[in-house]
Amino acid sequence: MSDFSYAMLPGIEQEEMLWLQELTRGYSSENKQRFLALYQSRRKDPQMILICCLIGLVGAAGIQRFMLNQIAMGILYFVTFGFCMIGTIIDAVNHRRLAWEFNKKEALSCAALLGL
After folding, report:
1. Which residues cross the membrane (predicted)?
2. What is the pTM of this model?
3. At residue 28, what are phi and psi to the nearest 5 degrees?
4. Distance of CA 109 to the CA centre of its chain
5. Helix, strand or coil for residue 108?
6. Given CA atoms 42, 46, 48, 49 in this order, what sign does their dihedral have?
């Protein structure tokens, strides 16, 4: 398995790919495949976060927060209509950062789960 396998992840950016390569630097090829399979199932695509933010502008607000496992914030967004839409707009602008922070935690969780 080459390090270019991370490039096939949807919506991946250079910073995330470099971080994943650094995280899995000492892994064997088999361990990298196991890590990639687990990480791919947990990873959130930044475009999907943006779509959920845009849905929050016209419909139910807070879906993006539920997707990021921030249940309390999701309920708060839903009840307050996305903090009167201002919070939803801020999330839409920062969707890449939100996804990156979530994905970083999930990558560390996957590495710990696999015991690598």
Report:
1. 48-68, 74-94
2. 0.86
3. -75, 170
4. 13
5. helix
6. positive
Cα dihedral: 79, 85, 89, 94 (round 10) = -20
Q: Which residue has the tokens 């999930």?
A: 106
Residue 13 DSSP SS3: coil
The 10s digit of each residue's pLDDT in 43-94 is 999 999 999 999 999 989 999 999 999 999 999 999 999 989 999 999 999 9
Residues of the chain with pLDDT > 90, as a percent, come to 72
- List, as one string, the DSSP characters of 35-76: HHHHHHHH---HHHHHHHHHHHHHS-TTHHHHHTT-HHHHHH
Q: How many CB atoms lie within 10 A of CB 108?
A: 11
Place of tokens 């997707």: 67
In Å, how far from its chain's centre is CA 14? 15
pLDDT over 80 (residue 95): yes
